């Protein structure tokens, strides 16, 4: 899983330096999510944050370094939020009911972190950040960690079928479920009036139906 990256220490170690770093990250995340990495200039970032361009170079060394920090920071916050939202999964109920509990809460986490997810999908779909090799590694880790998280949710939801069958179902369906999440988020971005909760219920129905069919076929 992604680990939190501590900011580069200011020589003065003062709080103002730490605040300026957080302010730059917050503004950069919003601008890059709205306009893309290539279209976000350091001049624009300086104007929006009220901080000089020299502050960006001081904290992040380059625009590519800033993007790496934005993605690392966003990914850490996203998965921490996910872990908190799913701390106490239900132990009772059908596979569909348990999976629905997981996916509803995951949808809520998506809605709470739109800038990070929007930027993540922008970077996945084009090569505009190719100059920052570290960003590609972060994207790969986010996709890998996200799929592992989905795998766990599905396997836990189908636990009533036994660990071997539950894991087989999860291994077959985790990528499909991730694709469903990506599609639901893009649809919500295109039309915010659409209900993410309803999309999660439909995704739950699809994954549960496929999983139950697979599980039935795997039983001796």
Structural features, described:
The protein is an all-alpha fold and 220 residues long. It has nine helices and no strands. It has a domain of 148 residues: Tetracycline Repressor, domain 2. 75% of the residues lie in helices and 0% in strands. Helix 1 crosses helix 2, helix 3 packs across helix 4 and helix 5 packs antiparallel against helix 9.
* CATH first level of the domain at 67-214: Mainly Alpha
Uncertain ranges: none
- Helix and strand succession? HHHHHHHHH
- Structural class designation: mainly alpha
Q: Major beta sheet, specifics? A: none
Q: What is the CATH topology descriptor of the domain at 67-214?
A: Tetracycline Repressor, domain 2
Number of strands: 0
SS summary, helix count: 9
Helix content: over 70%
CATH superfamily of the domain at 67-214: Tetracycline Repressor, domain 2
What CATH architecture of the domain at 67-214 do you see?
Answer: Orthogonal Bundle
The pLDDT mean sits at 88
Rounded to the nearest angstrom, the radius of gyration is: 20 Å
Q: What is the end-to-end distance?
A: 35 Å
Share in β-strands: under 5%
Principal-axis shape equals elongated
Write the layout of secondary structure elements.
Elements: H1 15-35, H2 42-49, H3 53-60, H4 63-85, H5 95-112, H6 114-125, H7 133-157, H8 163-190, H9 196-218
Helix pairs in contact: 1-2, 1-4, 1-6, 3-4, 4-5, 4-6, 4-7, 5-7, 5-9, 7-8, 8-9
């Amino acid at each position: 899983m992604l680990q939190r990256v501590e900011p580069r220490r200011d020589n003065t170690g003062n709080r103002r330096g730490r605040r300026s770093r957080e302010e730059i990250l917050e503004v950069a995340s919003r601008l890059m999510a709205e306009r893309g990495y290539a279209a976000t200039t350091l001049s624009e970032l300086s104007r929006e944050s009220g901080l000089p361009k020299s502050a960006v170079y001081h904290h992040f060394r380059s625009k590519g370094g800033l993007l790496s920090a934005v993605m690392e920071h966003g990914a850490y916050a996203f998965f921490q939020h996910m872990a908190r939202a799913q701390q106490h999964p239900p132990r009772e109920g059908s596979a569909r009911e348990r999976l629905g509990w997981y996916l509803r809460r995951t949808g809520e986490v998506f809605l709470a972190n739109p800038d990070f997810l929007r930027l993540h999908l922008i970077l996945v779909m084009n090569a505009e950040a190719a100059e920052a090799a570290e960003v590609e590694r972060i994207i790969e880790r986010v996709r890998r960690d996200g799929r592992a998280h989905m795998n766990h949710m599905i396997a836990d939801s189908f636990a009533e079928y036994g660990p071997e069958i539950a894991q087989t179902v999860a291994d077959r369906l985790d990528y499909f479920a991730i694709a469903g999440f990506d599609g639901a988020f893009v649809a919500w971005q295109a039309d915010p009036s659409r209900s993410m909760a309803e999309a999660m219920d439909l995704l739950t129905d699809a994954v549960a139906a496929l999983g139950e069919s697979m599980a039935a076929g795997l039983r001796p």
